[in-house]
Amino acid sequence: MEENQLEKLKQLAAFIEEQQFDVIALQEVNQSMEEAPLSPDDLGSYYSADSEIVIKRDNYAYVLNGLLSDAYHWTWAPAHIGFAKYDEGLAVLSRTPITDTVNEYASSLRDYDNYRSRKIVGIQTVVDGVPAWFVSGHYNWWNDEESFRGLWDRTTEILNPLAPTPVFMMGDFNNAAEVRGEGYDYVLQSGWLDTYSNAAVRDEGHTVIKAIAGWEGNAEPLRIDYVFSNQAVQVRSSAVVLNGKTGSVVSDHFGVAVELVL
């Protein structure tokens, strides 16, 4: 849905190569419903989270990975139809091989035609000799038809049994850290930790600075994109990236880059 999408994909790929991230979580990862499917031989380092998932030729994660000189291991799963023409889903990319995946609905709604059908998609991999889970999510608003609270309850129901393995829950939470008594506080009250708050070095953290889809009329900088952990870890830094200062702007949300020690 971005203007100059291919150019922005190239900019994102260049930034990934520059930074050499171990794991990348993406949300609103689309493919055209009418596009031709890829054959298994075309998929390379793709790790399927469900045998029924069909990857199309213009799948964002697939195209992005193809622009990298060193391809990542990756998975993708659709959650619902986006803008009446896309399979809209979530993706996770990893420099190290994927050993397992999670692909579950966080919403009670499971209507593929309804954008409020929400999933979490994650991978298990080994980073610096430590097995860990990295999960991508895209959530509803606190007062939505199906509220964030219920989605987070379901998320913790899925992820808590993975402990004591470290689990990192990443993505667009649509709940601002600046608002008390709503989604951000609810995540912390459930026992999860914000890597931003625990970072030895951090910036202002704002990932949305204007009105965007879902935040129409917004005029304040907001922190709504997070990396939460299920246990205490050493966090060296948390920085907003892909904001025109550190990396090009490639989306209506900026990115979050976290450096931590497992």
Automatic annotation (TrEMBL):
Q: Which residues form the Endonuclease/exonuclease/phosphatase domain?
A: 8-253
Q: State the UniProt keywords alphabetically.
A: Hydrolase
MF terms in GO: hydrolase activity
Pfam short name (any one): Exo_endo_phos
State its Enzyme Commission number(s).
Answer: 3.1.3.90
Entry-linked InterPro entries: Endo/exonu/phosph_ase_sf (IPR036691), Endo/exonuclease/phosphatase (IPR005135), TDP2-like (IPR051547)
Q: PANTHER family, per this entry?
A: ENDONUCLEASE_EXONUCLEASE_PHOSPHATASE FAMILY PROTEIN (PTHR15822:SF23), TRAF AND TNF RECEPTOR-ASSOCIATED PROTEIN (PTHR15822)
What is the name of this protein? Maltose 6'-phosphate phosphatase
